[in-house]
Amino acid sequence: MGFFRAAGVVYKPVEQIDLGPGSDEVYLKANVKAPRMAGFLVKIFTWFLELRIIGTLLLYILKRNNLIHKLVSNATLEEPPMFVPLHPFVDLNEQEVKQIDSDASPPERVQQAINCLHLTSEKSLDLKPSCFQRWTIADYSRAYSYGEITPRRVAEQFIDTVRESSSSHLPMSFFINYDAEDIIRQATESTLRYERGYPISTLDGVPIAIKDEIDCSPYPTTGGTKWLHKVRPCTGDACCVTRLRSCGAIIVGKTNMHELGAGPSGINPHYGTARNPYDPNKIAGGSSSGSAAVVSAGLCPVALGVDGGGSVRMPASLCGVVGFKPTFGRIPHSGVLPLNWTVGMVGILAGTLEDAFIVYAAISGQLPSHEPTALPARERFPLLNTTNPISNIKFAKYGEWFNDCSEEIKICCSNALHLLCERYKWKTVEVTIPGIEAMRLAHYVTIGSECSTSLSSHLEKLDFAELGWDARVALRIYSAFNSKEYIKAQKMRNRQMQIHNNIFAKADVIVSPTTGMTAYSIFDDALKTGELDYINGAAIIRYQIAGNFLGLPAVTVPVGYDKAGLPIGLQFMGKPWSEPTLMHVAFAMQALCISDYRKPEVFYDLLRKN
User: Is the pLDDT reported for residue 353 higher than 50?
Assistant: First the structure.
């Protein structure tokens, strides 16, 4: 199709780019040209797309119209490709941190994290009516230690609640799989440890859910599909799950997710659609939809997800909880479905920053010997119990990008940032971050190529009737990317790595809204087929890409609500290995907003004493 070949962009060398606010670099908004499709319409489109000649033509048109050819395929870049976003360790001289023993066991690391927090000794289980707060890890541990409730009783209430939520008028579809007998077994063992006065750690008896992209016995790992677990059996726990178990946590099941992680809505035609606890008629976001929903609804204080393209941070923001994605390589990836091995990372969804920190302490640390890493020899935790907040923080803010969201999100996030800077005397530095749309497309080429390559041997034998229709479209598009496009995308990764390093020479943290819109409606026509909604998808994923494509740590914190009462998140993205600074900043933001947090429409109180 050379006659129709789109001219590619010639990118100037990074050293010639002006990253200041007066730069002549033009902000290019997402150029998504694809109508929403669901139901019978998406079936017809899929049939055409899977035809050899017509499908090839449609794919060419889609790639050209959505600027993949112009910005990636046919672009000219002088940078060499960077295939894995591994970062060499640089001592950042972070403030208010504590060095910890890198060889410490997970329970010891959890205790180190607890020592960094200011936790009250109060044992009341009565929520203040004027201030909504979810129960935290410390609340569970305290209640167990004082004998106010037992892990077994919490487990029984959890099981009853999940069953109730599944039979409601709008099924919440939190889980793909949970085993009541296994949950009770774990809870009984934890109860005995508390009765003997020897809990393993603060996490002992705390219910934690696991995204169904992470291996966890006794459950199959489906990846949100009806077939993947049949060709890739789960043979044991992922490393991160093993570490949680060693701390005494109760693993309560495998949460729902978008099929193969191939969308930001969380709509799953096989296992039901995980719904947003703030409005069950809205999406929870994806792909870690179930993990965000269970935390938001109070079923677990913490859940694990996998973040390949904002898949932890987006649903966390839409469901009004904290979402934390560490630096690439910080958390072991063994036992996670290898769907996107250079952009995906295990992440944490939690009701509070403190709980995200505690679980981060448990699952991070030295990696298995077969995993590539540049983990620092010295590891530090943030001292969140200090009376002296860190000083002289500079936020990089790209105004045109920051404001490319709904008006309500723009106002809410701007006000939150202003409040944060005013309270702590921190500063905002106006910058320009060029090539954000090109980076989004390069990430799409990368994650799509890696997913289709990972599944290629299975797809050759697969009956496509076992796939959801939206997943079939995604896999057909993914398979259309060629080696030249993948290499160009990796050259773009190197280019953007250099640009972001230059931004971080001016500031400590890049700040933005977490999503460009709040949760949108779930339509009935999508429930059986899934849906294609790339316009809303692009708005939701707008601020996520650098965290995954460049392997940077990032965290989202709830900062308000829109007029419909749907949550809004503010995102902080940091330098490689700067998790302590990010946690300090997120903790400070949370402290300013937490008194205004609202109770979701769907919420369960597992520490009730009846």
Answer: yes
